[in-house]
Description:
By secondary structure, the protein is mainly alpha-helical. It is about 80% helix and about 0% strand. The protein has one domain (about 5-75). It contains 2 helices and no strands.
Amino acid sequence: MTELELLELLKSATEGVDANFQFWIFSSIAVLMAFYFAAGKIGGYVKWTTISLYMTSAILFLSRMFESGTRSIISCCKPKGRGIDPDRF
């Protein structure tokens, strides 16, 4: 890969991580606001369903961010078959 292709790949991975992080922050604020304004009106079942869905989405968003970052590191640090062994990750 040329240096330009590596920079484009790094930019693409960074944009993907940034988009996932922004969506995760948005969903976090939405959950916090919902519980702040409707804490007394939300029943136990709805409350725990919302918490479990939020935790699932948070784990998925964070795993996507780590996976995207790892992919960019592996792609940028492995020139012409040398460098980091992708099986280690």
